[in-house]
Amino acid sequence: PIKTADQSILSDPIGFKADMSEEIRKEIDEHKEVSPTFGRFRLHIQNKYLKNSTGLDLGASKTFFYIEYAVKAQENGKLSEAWEIEYIKEKEHLNIEERVNKWARIAVDTLKAKIPKPNKQAIVIFPPNVLKNAISPVIGFHALGKAYHEKISTLNVDAKVASDTFTLQDDGLLEGGLMCNSWDGEGNPHQMNEVIKNGIFKKRLYDQKFAIMGNTESTGNGIRIDDGSVINSISNLEILPGDITKEEMISNIKEGFFIEKCSWLNPDRFSG
């Protein structure tokens, strides 16, 4: 089984939460150019159990975090605010100093913000935090066995759907993934499924129900939701990286836009 819970956190969750909240407050205080307006640090502990009459008896614990903070900057009568929200799986990914530096930078930079000049030839760069909200509801939906059997998927196996350099996988065992677990909501093993390889759509994602309908096997994509029912859904979508850094990418662009954040990005799952 893979590690989904941090035992050091489980042994003292209240103490860990208090320490992290204090660290965030101290780090914000180091930035004299901004001041906090709102803050919330939440620690989640999930205990899951799956049992049935055939002898299936599974259990697992999971720890993850929720951060929501707002900082404001003010200058010459202008006021701006950075309001950041994120779920984070591992404590090693909290990176409080780096995270607060980014909040402060966004708040201060927004004071000098200008409407960009239109340019149809400009290159647009989307960071992972924006891209996940654009891709997951659309490609993640059309790749499901449910969408295929309801005849609403636009993806056909072995059809070219993206650039040759684009590879997308759904990895239920992804280290640091919020949906990481050894098994899905039906007891089937989570696994890594290559959905798109070099631009070619290769594999659909199935739960038990739609796998039976498609005369195939579950890919471990039966996700049990809060009301106890199981839905066919993605686990952790991952785009395999290229061979250059973000800084190198930006340095090669003459004119372009870097989209730091989109407010309430919610694309239609049918049209994108």
- Largest sheet report: 4 strands, antiparallel
Rg (CA only): 21 Å
Low-confidence stretches: none
Global morphology: globular
The order of strands across the largest sheet is: 7-6-5-10
Structural class, please?
alpha+beta
Mean pLDDT over all positions: 95
Provide an overview of this structure.
The chain is of the alpha+beta class. The protein folds into two domains: 7-111, PmbA/TldD superfamily (PmbA/TldD fold), CATH 3.30.2290.10; 123-258, no CATH class. It has eight helices and eleven strands. The protein has a four-stranded antiparallel beta sheet with strand order 7-6-5-10, with no helix packed on it. Strands 1-2-3 form a three-stranded antiparallel beta sheet. A two-stranded parallel sheet has the order 4-11. A hairpin with a 5-residue loop joins strand 8 (222-224) and strand 9. Helix 2 packs parallel to helix 3 (96-111). The longest helix is centred in the N-terminal third of the chain and has 17 residues, at 13-29. The chain starts with 6 loop residues before the first helix and ends in a 14-residue tail after the last strand. The model has no long low-confidence stretch (mean pLDDT 95). It holds the Pfam family PmbA_TldD_3rd. GO terms for molecular function: metallopeptidase activity. InterPro entries: Metalloprtase-TldD/E_C, PmbA, TldD/PmbA_N, TldD/PmbA_sf. Residues 121-262 form the Metalloprotease TldD/E C-terminal domain. This is Metalloprotease TldD/E C-terminal domain-containing protein.
